[in-house]
Design a protein that fits this description.
By secondary structure, the protein is an all-beta fold. The protein is 0% helix and 19% strand. The protein has no helices and three strands. It has a three-stranded antiparallel β-sheet with strand order 2-1-3, with no helix packed on it. This is Zinc ribbon domain-containing protein. Pfam families: Zn_ribbon_8 (PF09723).
Length: 73
């Protein structure tokens, strides 16, 4: 299920919403309008051919994103 970014054309509020294809159109959480504009969103992906491309676990706490990820010094 993708997360979409929306901007409400009625009140200007910007928000994100997890949307299923079978879901009805979301409403603005601020004014409840359904007059929305879908924003262009950037996405990210992790690519790599092996485990050596990714940092190892943190030596202090074992956080899987590597040293400094948990800000535990």
């Amino acid at each position: 299920m993708p997360i979409y970014e929306y901007a409400c054309t009625t009140c200007g509020k910007e928000f994100e919403k997890l949307v299923r294809q079978s879901s009805p159109a979301p409403a603005c959480p601020s004014c409840h309008s359904v007059d929305l504009r879908k924003k262009l969103s950037a996405f990210s992906a992790i690519t790599g051919s092996g485990a050596s491309d990714f940092p190892g676990p943190c030596g202090s706490c074992g956080h899987p994103d590597g040293p400094g990820a948990c800000h535990f010094q």
